[in-house]
């Protein structure tokens, strides 16, 4: 699965893109976020405030409860500030 | 009015409002109202060197397309253009353009207003401010008023 | 924001939207949002040769100035342009232009919407349709929806 | 007093502008309209539906009940259709 990070999430994680094998037991976006946040300090810092995390699966907004286990591409990012 | 193909663009280049209006209007007599929203890089007190616009390539275009489709389902538009710039943008420069065309002005106004509200809260773009002081750049925080603005349309749906 | 001098014009000449936007923006970095409304001469089925716009010289300019003053009192605008054409106007041509500038988009959207609603019902202009058939020209009848639109703002005042 | 007429009111009256001496007893815009409508068939036709008549005194909208006896310029016209 391809993972993407944007804005300050990208900066805290330390990379904009990586490929992972989804570990067993990770089904929802929230599961994935919790798993990622335990990887190292950078990830922990990136995901420290779950209220500020938005997620997209295959380039569409999904909720934290959505099943992302079948997605090719999952992206995490802060609330959007375009326009 | 699903026969309208909206023009969607995400680009580092500046856009030309007059050319976009001309593109939408050319050779047509079925447009009574054109509403154009231009979002500019603002710097009231000289403290900003530039904005840096990051986006999610692919999803940004897809999300603008989804917003355009929603607007076309909701209002009888005869033309629609959405352009969002990315990269480094200086004070006074263009950031975003939304143009809505319709036979009547209410549809054109409402659709442009709707598109900007959802573009702000749904389209994957992020702004970083580079201060004129040379200090560390800062990510812009999302405003709760933007969510409130977007929520106005849900309230209308529920009526 | 009473320091803003709105640009008001009533003229038989066409206007250049790009030039008007440039005029409003030039050298400034305090504008975050520009809303442009362009009203065009519409003819969906080829039955219209031209519109003829009659106005009350003197009062037309004065009334547009009064509407501009109301909008400036009501919203924190940083720029305002209202241009209305008179005389013979062909399908596809410009009739009216309203440009509102503000730090934030809500004020710019609402002010442009407000100005168009009151311009339609309060500014002394009258349209006569010249049919393509060569038949007798007909005065356009006022629409009750225009009064309803204008009344929206009174309801907001009363809240 | 200068009187002005616009759009179909001008066409029905047969002139866009005239100067009158305000007759005694005419105080409000409505008084003036009633007096004008008794002048001839064109005026009667122009003012036949009072609901469609708008009035301005010295280039400002006023109500039919407004005292226009001191105005320099009074204009009658149909509902506006600009924009």
Oligomer status: heterotetramer
> Considering the protein shown, what is the CATH homologous superfamily of chain A?
Beta-grasp domain
Largest sheet of chain B: 4 strands, mixed
In terms of DSSP E residues, the strand content of chain B is 25-35%
Strand order of the largest sheet of chain B: 1-4-6-2
* SSE string of chain B, helices as H and strands as E: EHEEHEEEHEEH
Largest interface: B-C, 35 and 35 residues
Shape of chain B: globular
GO molecular function (chains B, C): molybdopterin synthase activity
Region (Disordered) (chains B, C): 129-148
Catalytic activity (chains B, C): 2 [molybdopterin-synthase sulfur-carrier protein]-C-terminal-Gly-aminoethanethioate + cyclic pyranopterin phosphate + H2O = molybdopterin + 2 [molybdopterin-synthase sulfur-carrier protein]-C-terminal Gly-Gly + 2 H(+)
Organism (chains B, C): Pseudovibrio exalbescens
Keywords:
heterotetramer, A: 83 residues, alpha+beta, Ubiquitin-like (UB roll), 5-stranded mixed sheet, globular, B: 159 residues, Aldehyde Oxidoreductase, domain 3, 4-stranded mixed sheet, 4-stranded antiparallel sheet, 32% strand
């Amino acid at each position: 699965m391809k993972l993407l990070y944007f804005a300050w999430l990208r900066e805290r994680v330390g990379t904009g893109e990586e490929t992972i094998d989804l570990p067993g037991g990770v089904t929802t976006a929230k599961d994935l976020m919790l798993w990622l946040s335990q990887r190292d300090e950078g990830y922990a810092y990136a995901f420290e405030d779950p209220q500020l995390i938005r997620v997209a699966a295959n380039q569409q907004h999904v909720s934290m409860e959505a099943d992302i286990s079948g997605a090719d591409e999952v992206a995490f990012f802060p609330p959007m500030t375009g326009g | 009015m699903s026969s309208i193909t909206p023009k969607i663009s995400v680009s580092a280049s500046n856009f030309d409002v007059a050319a976009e209006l001309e593109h939408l209007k050319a050779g047509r007599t079925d447009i009574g109202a054109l509403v154009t929203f231009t979002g500019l890089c603002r710097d009231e007190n000289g403290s900003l060197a530039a904005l840096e616009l990051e986006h999610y390539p692919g999803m940004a275009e897809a999300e603008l397309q989804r917003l355009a489709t929603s607007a076309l389902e909701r209002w009888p538009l005869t033309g629609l253009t959405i352009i969002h710039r990315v990269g480094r943008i200086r004070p006074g420069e263009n950031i975003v353009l939304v143009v809505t065309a319709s036979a009547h002005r209410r549809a054109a106004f409402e659709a442009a207003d709707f598109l900007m509200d959802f573009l702000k809260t749904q389209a994957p773009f992020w702004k970083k401010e580079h201060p004129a002081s040379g200090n560390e750049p800062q990510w812009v925080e999302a405003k709760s008023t933007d969510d409130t603005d977007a929520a106005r349309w849900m309230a209308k749906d529920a009526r």
